[in-house]
Amino acid sequence: MRVLHTADWHLGQHFLTGQERLTEQKVFLNWLLDTVVREGVEALVLAGDVFDTTTPSHAAQELYYDFLVRMQATGCRDIVVVGGNHDSPTLLNASG
After folding, report:
1. In CATH, what number is assigned to the domain containing residue 67?
2. How many domains, the chain?
3. Distance CA 69, CA 96 (A)
4. Which ranges of the chain would DSSP assign to H, the alpha helix?
5. pTM for this model (two decimals)
6. 43 Cβ contact partners less than 8 Å away, ≥ 6 residues apart
7. What domain range is 38 assigned to?
């Protein structure tokens, strides 16, 4: 079984200047999806700090939920999400 482990995405994080990182984070998630397909990953383990705060922006939540929907088409059988200290269990478990 091929397992890919990732963590600390901090979706919705801002630079100290206030500039959002959503574009950069979207590029990362696209790369991750491509990697899952290319490597034939069967299980993805996401170990915490999906979001940068427990109250992420709508745009950050959309990135996460869109990623989960797109993962369904990859052939990856299991996605295990472990909440971190920045995450709200309610948001991680929501269907988007």
Report:
1. 3.60.21.40
2. 1
3. 9
4. 22-39, 58-71, 89-93
5. 0.87
6. 1, 2, 3, 4, 76, 77, 78, 79, 80
7. 3-93
